[in-house]
Amino acid sequence: MEALRVLNNNVVLARDEKGQEVILTGRGIGFSSRQGKPIDPALIVRVFVPADGRDPDHVAETLALIDEEVLRAVVIALGEAGIEGRESTRPTLAIAVADHVAGALDRAKRGIVVEYPLKAETQTLYATEYRQAEQLLAAINERVDPKLDDSEATALALHLVNAGFASGDLSFTYTMTGVIQQMLAVVGEQYGVDVSQQSMNAARFITHVRYLFVRIQQHRQLKGHESTIGKGIRQHYPQATATAQKLATIVELRLGQQLSEDEVSYLALHVARMTMETDGGEV
């Protein structure tokens, strides 16, 4: 790779073999690089390939503003936790996590421990990300002083969830978390079942709703080509469809987005699966 711009000792903007601009991080990589010259591959810890039209130069400048040791700890920890490979299309994740860690370290030095109110929801709704966050926190703590409190796993998990959305902050993830909880409460009250249990169908419902939120963010709701299937679902599960329409109303009120008929149909299918799991029939 050829160096285009040295941002600091740990961050370099470069051009790879395909001719695209990438961001390289690694201890001392900037110190050893010169504009227009090849970069020593042994110094590269992570290669960021900005996606979604993000300006590589701007992203590189943002990375360079983060404390070098914090950025290094986070970049290496993301790899050790199995969250990011050597090449990543999500530099905003590293930026968000590093920024959070920097703030958490400052609080830790002052003896401040934050108890995040969404811990229970995060552990239940985003179990995979929470486990990854615990591994990430452990890997970060191997490289920072003072050590971060276990409660930081909740915030890190939310950042991992948020990485699936276009928004740069956690506001959409907080909203999504509240909406999912509200949806589960409606289903539980409607059918008199406990949907907070970690059942396979409840997990499928949560996963489906998370991808629904992604589609809403990207303005790519299911419609048209799946209308025949959607119609069949609505006919076969009328009561679950009525519940799904209530869930669609919640989404519209909270996000200002009306769901397509097919999205409502697939919500109905997951509602039916959850309730059949409990009492063995369509409700």
UniProtKB/TrEMBL annotation:
Annotated InterPro entries: BglG_antiterminators (IPR050661), CAT_RNA-bd_dom (IPR004341), CAT_RNA-bd_dom_sf (IPR036650), PRD (IPR011608), PRD_sf (IPR036634)
Top-level taxon of origin: Bacteria
Keyword Glycoprotein: no
Gene3D superfamilies, alphabetized: CAT RNA-binding domain, PRD domain
SUPFAM superfamilies registered for this protein in UniProt: PTS-regulatory domain, PRD (SSF63520), SacY-like RNA-binding domain (SSF50151)
Residues forming coiled coils: none
GO molecular function terms listed in the Swiss-Prot or TrEMBL record: RNA binding
UniProt cross-references to Pfam families, sorted A to Z: CAT_RBD, PRD
Keywords linked to the UniProt accession: Repeat
Chain ranges of the PRD domain: 61-170, 171-281
Keyword Repeat: yes
GO biological process: regulation of DNA-templated transcription
Name of the protein this chain belongs to: Beta-glucoside operon transcriptional antiterminator
Organism: Streptomyces indicus
